[in-house]
Specification:
The complex is a heterodimer of chains A (280) and B (166).
Chain A (H helix, E strand, L loop, with lengths): L1 E4 H17 L3 H13 L3 H20 L9 E9 L2 E4 L3 H15 L23 E7 L4 E8 L1 H4 L3 E5 L4 H16 L7 E9 L1 H11 L11 H15 L14 E11 L4 E8 L4 E6 L1
Parallel strand pairs in A: 1-3, 2-4, 7-8
Antiparallel strand pairs in A: 2-5, 5-10, 6-9, 7-9
Helix pairs in contact in A: 1-4, 2-3, 6-8
Chain B lengths: L1 E5 L3 H5 L6 E10 L2 H6 L9 E3 L27 H6 L4 E4 L5 H10 L2 E4 L5 H5 L2 E8 L8 E15 L11
Parallel strand pairs in B: 1-2, 2-3, 3-4, 4-5
Antiparallel strand pairs in B: 2-7, 5-7, 6-7
The chains are: A alpha/beta (280), B alpha/beta (166).
């Protein structure tokens, strides 16, 4: 049994949550740069160049990429041969979030109750997803997820007879309804299969896949490409000012499901696709 | 790029057309969900409100990251403010029919700016002071001064709008 101190997890979460808010991942930056070359409209090119400059300013002058520094979504893949010592694991994660908010000047964006709506002032509690995996390490991924894009996400329990065309229609309808609200160009994470809660989790999880990579299943990879092309034909464009770049990537993950179900979840993510990972 | 001074003059506003890119300079107010719910305690006549909840300012900085938030959450309150004479709003995303009607009726304007460019836009803010609800933190009402703040006319005073507003 490998022992890992809770303090180490706290420090890792603090570092990753702060890092995500100041450093746009390379794959996102590259996707934005590729899009500038493809755009023909002057205003769309201008917005994309502003977004690239924005990420440079964030990194070099230490100003968060976006003022919505997000809800901290923490994925912890815990090796089954690991024993966490010296504290409570969830408390360690929340302490990490709390420290990052204070030390990295992040915005307090969480309320303690959905109706009372009093700000917790430190972005706790984080959303924590834990998974037990083989091995003796812990992999932590922290996503800073803004509400502008999260609010435009949707889930639907389709009929099995709806099939892929039904999934395509639902995704396009969701993105069209979102329009300019989720800060396009967006990244679309889709979960198909599982059940009600599992497909929502899959949709979020699939956002962590590197942009530009494909689902290993050929038919799903084709569906990703079809959706990317059709979303970009909606011409919502960067910031919703029109153009060819509405979406940077579509990532889909699938799971087995009940004979009577075809659950689909669409998690929309803004161009400020902020996440960071570490292995302890 | 066209440049306009804040507060906006009626004559300047009359000439605005959807899709135009504009640099704004001058003073405006910031407010979002909580301040709208409580009521914006300043005279909004002729003024501009920017929907933003900035990150805390570092020592030596005027303000933190400060990009637009989704405007539709303020749709419930906007028509009342427009009727009181609010000249313009800056945010991102669509507006409701009620807001669009109020804009047309009162010859007011809705600007959109670059969502998710909070670091970039913060560099166009030259001063900031809290004028109400300091206890709301990021949601407090601030008076800020901007210099060459980039916006796009999303809904103009004659009812014209960019495609994604429909």
């Amino acid at each position: 049994m490998r022992k890992i101190k809770a303090k180490k997890i706290e420090q890792a979460v603090e570092k990753l949550y702060a890092k995500a808010n100041y450093n746009l991942p390379k794959d996102v930056e590259q996707a934005l740069k590729r899009s500038v070359k493809k755009e023909t409209s002057r205003i769309a090119k201008n917005v994309l160049n502003v977004l690239i400059e924005n990420s440079d300013i964030a990194k070099n002058e230490l100003i968060p990429i976006c003022q919505d520094t997000g809800l901290a979504i923490v994925f912890a893949e815990i090796g089954q041969d690991v024993c966490v010592v010296g504290g409570d694991l969830k408390e360690a994660v929340n302490n990490g979030v709390k420290n990052a908010v204070k030390k990295a000047f992040l915005r307090a964006s969480v309320v303690g109750d959905p109706f009372d709506r009093v700000n917790t002032k430190d972005n706790t509690p984080a959303i924590i997803h834990m998974d037990i995996v083989p091995g003796s390490k812990i992999k932590i991924s922290v996503m800073a997820k803004g509400a502008g894009s999260e609010n435009m996400s949707a889930l639907k329990m389709l009929k099995p007879s709806d099939g892929m065309p039904g999934v395509i229609d639902f995704v396009l309808e969701t993105v069209k309804n979102a329009g300019p609200n989720p800060c396009p160009p967006i990244v679309v994470g889709i979960g198909v299969g599982g059940n009600f809660e599992k497909c929502a989790y899959l949709a979020k999880r699939s956002l962590l896949r590197r942009l530009g990579t494909k689902n290993p299943k050929k038919n799903i990879a084709r569906l990703e490409k079809t959706l990317l092309d059709r979303i970009n034909k909606l011409k919502i464009g960067p910031s919703g000012f029109g153009g060819k770049t509405t979406c940077l990537a579509v990532n889909i993950q699938t799971l087995p499901c009940h004979i009577a179900s075809l659950p689909v979840a669409v998690n929309i993510e803004c161009h400020a696709h902020r996440h960071a990972e570490a292995v302890i | 790029m066209k440049r306009l001074a804040l507060p906006l003059k009626k004559t300047d506003m009359a000439g605005l057309r959807a899709g135009q890119e504009i640099f704004l300079s001058g003073k405006l107010y910031t407010a979002r969900d909580a301040a709208h719910k409580k009521g914006i305690p300043v005279n909004v006549k002729g003024q501009t409100v920017y929907y933003v909840g900035p990150t805390p300012a570092k020592k030596g900085s005027v303000i933190g990251s400060a990009g637009p938030t989704t405007s539709s959450r303020m749709d419930k309150y906007a028509p009342g403010l427009i009727k009181k004479g609010l000249a313009a709003m800056i945010g991102k995303g669509k507006r409701s029919k009620e807001v669009r009607d109020a804009l047309l009726e009162n010859k007011a304007v809705y600007f959109a700016t670059y969502g998710g460019a909070g670091a970039y836009l913060s560099k166009r803010i030259v001063s900031s002071r809290t004028v109400a609800y300091p206890e709301l933190g990021t949601e407090a009402v601030r008076e800020i001064e901007v210099k060459d703040f980039p916006v796009v006319v999303a809904i103009d005073p004659k009812g014209g709008m960019i495609d994604s507003m429909r």
